[in-house]
Design a protein that fits this description.
Keywords: Membrane, Transmembrane, Transmembrane helix. It is built from four helices and no strands. The protein is mainly alpha-helical and 85 residues long. Helix 1 packs antiparallel against helix 2 and helix 2 packs antiparallel against helix 3.
């Protein structure tokens, strides 16, 4: 197992463990920090192992940190003017 995969698995475990404990700011500072670490890590996985494995880790990261993804989706929908009927 390569270093990038090992670091990605550690990243997933740390995010899961931190999410189990309460936080005064609803984990947003921690989420920003982990996103800043996770994006380059996904890039390294893509470089070393290809698109499909990077996509798997991206989907796992999106599953664990779903609220930033939900808020991003809402923001994009507001920007493009989409209103569900």
């Amino acid at each position: 197992m390569t270093l990038s995969i090992t670091l990605a698995l550690i990243w997933l475990v740390v995010v899961n463990l931190r999410g189990m404990f309460p936080s005064k700011d609803n984990h947003w500072r921690f989420a920003y920090f982990m996103i800043a670490l996770g994006v380059p890590l996904i890039g390294v996985i893509w470089y070393q192992h290809g698109f499909w494995l990077a996509l798997v880790f991206l989907l796992m990261a999106m599953w664990v940190m779903r609220w930033p993804v939900i808020y991003l989706g809402r923001w994009v929908r507001r920007k493009i003017g989409y209103t569900p009927e």
